[in-house]
Structure formats: C-alpha cells, structure tokens
C-alpha cells in the first residue's frame, strides 16, 4: 500500500503558538518513530512507539514536546509554545517490528517558527 | 552511547567515476548499520543495511557497503555514479532508535 504520510507538509507558526504534526504509518506497522532534522544536520531521534505504548521518549528536547499514538496507528507530535529553535523538519518513520527492521520514512513536515 | 561520524561534508565526483563515502561508528554490541539517501524535498530512502553475515552488502541503485569491524567502518561504494545519484547520504546505526551521521552531500559534475 501507500508509504508513510505526514501532514501538513509545511507549517509556519508564530512564536508561542501550539502546533500538531500528524503521521500516518504504513498499515500494519507496529513501530513508529519521530525524528527532528535541523538544517544541514542528520535526523535526531525524538521518540518511539510500539503500538500505542511510548517506549522511549529520551530524545524529546523539552516538556513542550509531546507525542501520542492512542490507537496504535496514527501518531501526533505536539509542540506547545513554539520557539524559533524548534524550526526544523520533523520526520516520521514506521517499521513492521523487531530489532533492526527497516524504518520507512515519510516526507517530513517542515516547521518554521517566526 | 552510539554515534556515527561521516567525515566528508561534501564530495564532488564526475559522472561515471567511482564513489566511496566514509562512515565510522561507535556502538556497544554488534551493530545494525544503515545507509539512507535523501533527495531534496524527499524522505529518506534506505539504500542498504547490515547486521550479520557477509560483510559486503549489496543495495539498491548499484550501491554496496563493506562492514569492517576492526576499523568500525561501514563505507558506501558505487563503481560508476550517475547524475541522478546527486543527493545527501546518511549513515546510521541502531537497533530501534537510529543515530545518524551529519550526512555527506554528493555533487555530480558532467
């Protein structure tokens, strides 16, 4: 079927606004990952779900970042009170399960905070 | 802690020439290693991955990589590049959460 999709593809927010970024993983994929990619850098891990359980959130940069996957499928990354340093591309990836399984990435959401 | 170093920020090669992109990693156990490619406006696409077995791994688009445990390296190679190979290349290590290098930007000149 379709690959990983993300929406919106572009988001401009004023500093202090809250934003919500959506990820639709590949159907049937158990694991879902969020990464943050700053300009000119490699992606950096934010958080990881297995089904609806958030197993690792060690990469979330502050308590303004929150992710959920309530039904074990679609996931939302929420950023409260956005700051300029939050400007980046947010990538979502999914995998079928298991250690070292290929992670399939979505096109990303480019967030610009003014 | 796991880490990846890609020492070359930018490489320029002529179309038809051979290519080698370097990757060094630090990992506490037998690593899962990956090479991804990212074209402008596109998501990351997996080129190849290694966990065990043959240390020379074949991937898509004619790419291959060789795992050398003694050197903690996983260099990506292609014998003859095409203009369409121009992109950003990322090496990554990890079992679940991936740690990426900072990437190597590949430019192809005619």
Secondary structure layout plus pairing:
The complex is a heterodimer of chains A (114) and B (110).
Chain A: E1 5-7, E2 10-13, E3 19-24, E4 31-37, E5 44-50, E6 53-56, E7 65-68, E8 75-79, E9 88-95, E10 104-105, E11 109-113
Parallel strand pairs in A: 2-11
Antiparallel strand pairs in A: 1-3, 3-8, 4-5, 4-9, 5-6, 7-8, 9-10, 9-11
Chain B: E1 3-5, E2 10-14, E3 19-21, E4 24-26, E5 33-38, E6 44-50, E7 56-58, E8 64-68, E9 73-78, E10 87-93, E11 99-100, E12 104-109
Parallel strand pairs in B: 2-12
Antiparallel strand pairs in B: 1-4, 3-9, 5-6, 5-10, 7-8, 8-9, 10-11, 10-12
Explain what the structure shows:
The complex is a heterodimer of chains A (114) and B (110). Chain A has 114 residues and is mostly beta strands. Chain A has a domain at 20-95: Immunoglobulin-like. Helices cover 0% and strands 48% of the residues of chain A. Chain A has strands spanning 5-7, 10-13, 19-24, 31-37, 44-50, 53-56, 65-68, 75-79, 88-95, 104-105, 109-113. In chain A, a hairpin with a 2-residue loop joins strand 5 and strand 6 (53-56). Chain A is globular and about 40 Å long. The mean pLDDT of chain A is 95. Chain B is an all-beta fold and 110 residues long. In chain B, strands 2, 5, 6, 10, 11 and 12 form a six-stranded mixed sheet that branches. A four-stranded antiparallel sheet of chain B has the order 3-9-8-7, with no helix packed on it. Chain B is globular, with a radius of gyration of 13 Å. Chain A binds chain B through residues 3-4, 31, 33, 35, 40-45, 48, 55-56, 59, 91, 93, 99-100, 102-108, and chain B through 4, 32, 34, 36, 41-46, 49, 51, 90, 92, 95-103.
